[in-house]
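Reply to thread "Modeling small-molecule complexes from scratch"

Following up on the discussion above, here's a worked example others can learn from. I took a protein sequence and the SMILES for adenine and predicted the complex. Inputs first:
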Amino acid sequence: MSDLIEPVIGVIGGSGLYDIDGLEDRQWRRIESPWGEPSDEVLTGRLDGVRCVFLPRHGRGHRVPPSELNYRANIDVLKRAGVTEVLSISAVGSLNGDLPPGHFVVVDQFIDRSFARKKSFFETGLVAHVSMAHPVCARLGDAAEAALRDLQIPHKRGGTYLVMEGPQFSTKAESELYRAWGCDVIGMTNMPEAKLAREAELCYATVAMVTDFDCWHPDHDHVTVDAVIKVMQANADKAKALVKAVIPALGKPRGPCPQGCDRALEMALITPPEKRDPALVAKLDAVAGRVLNRA
Ligand SMILES: CSC[C@H]1O[C@H](OP(=O)(O)O)[C@H](O)[C@@H]1O
Ligand SMILES: Nc1ncnc2[nH]cnc12
């Protein structure tokens, strides 16, 4: 018997990316979650025979702001749809003079400054602490980097994404502070998304598309939605080409994740079985069923 799994690739589309092209058997499907309403239905289909599931992060029509996104429901429905790896696509501001608008960054670290969001699937009744030392899956990063290289899209492998609460953009003092911390890009959405993906034992990586220089750059205008959308529209075809290249590359049957993303809960649960809240355990059926349903 083989231990290989057939990956199902999830894509979370950020600002400007509300659909993906070229899917066979495409179908928008509503998936119920015990964690509430996700941003939208998911788009399921196949690309070169590889199963994939797309979720527009803010919903079609960009209805949901960063602080009101139900990050838990979004990750839960992807897991329920069978997703094993998640590629997150995000618009970001640049905090690094070497990363002008139009550049893509394969993010490898985050600093989470969001504060008004539910950040864990685990609550009173079942406590868990997963490692976030390496918050993205290097295997997914490798695939994204290879696709960006092949497509000749200007990019940087590695970079730190500062997650701000928003929805207002940063003050100049904040922008300077994050630059002094060594951050490369800034956005409002990738946390707690990456933390929840880890709790759900999903491989996760972010490709960030630089749309502006935030507000620190002396030679550039301060960020506006208009400017972000203009750059996103110019880059939408590149983002779609990236998705089209990455999905088949990640879709080959594979063994366990070398980094252990798919086993993140193995050593994380601290509440013993007899003290666990059965209602919470039931809600965690998709996210943590692998470890909770053991005899
Ligand atoms: C429309 S500009 C601000 C908006 O864009 C980014 O969203 P996403 O990560 O979903 O592409 C940023 O985080 C803000 O939510
Ligand atoms: N400058 C910026 N700050 C926060 N989120 C962004 N998304 C795109 N540009 C941004």
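What I'd highlight from this example: The longest strand covers residues 85-94. The pocket of LNRAV4D5 (ligand 1) is lined by residues 14-15, 57-58, 66, 90-91, 187-189, 225, 228 (CB under 6 Å). Questions welcome below.
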